[in-house]
Amino acid sequence: MSKRTFDLLCSCGGLLLLSPVFLAVMIWIKLDSPGPVFFRQVRVGRHGKPFRIHKFRTMRVDAERSGRLTVGVDKRVTQAGFFLRKYKLDELPQLIDVVLGEMSLVGPRPEVQEFIDCYPPDVREKVLSVRPGITDWASIEMVDENQLLAGYEDSRQAYIDVVLPIKQRFYLEYVERQSLVADVRIIFATILKVISR
């Protein structure tokens, strides 16, 4: 079975199976704070092609005016958003992006152009040679990334100098060793990590 076939089967099945959860979360977001249900942001996809990612909105609608990174206990995050972020439920709408072919279930997480520009050229070329994913080993290992950044005075620079190099190592390893078996392992490891929280 090809990776794309696996992605399509799982994402379509996931959207169908999780439709009651989607509905409940959408109602909660609308009741919790004013604004749209989904957060759409331009990310860099395969071969550098930009696309608009789907996520459940977890912050106030004007949140990006004060920066893109979420650090520590961020006051911009809504009450529903704290729960959705903790259990990674805000990422579920990316199943739509998998169906559309913009993303894969497993792969390097898609970044905004601002941070892609910080990649060394050779690393950027290799990482962008595959579809970005909903989850990967970096996401599992750095699940509390915002708490890590809270320990630095300049969170943006810390993300560039400390977090990005770690993520890039995971991304490169994935690209070089990717397989369907590895994807299944990462998916189950992600589920276990979320449950353990």
TrEMBL record:
Keyword Disulfide bond: no
InterPro entries: Bact_transf
Entry keywords, A to Z: Transferase
Pfam (any one): Bac_transf
Signal peptide: none
Bacterial sugar transferase domain span: 3-195
One GO MF term attached to the UniProt entry: transferase activity
EC number assigned by the record: 2.7.8.-
Family: Belongs to the bacterial sugar transferase family.
Stated name of the protein: Sugar transferase
Annotated source species: Pseudomonas benzenivorans
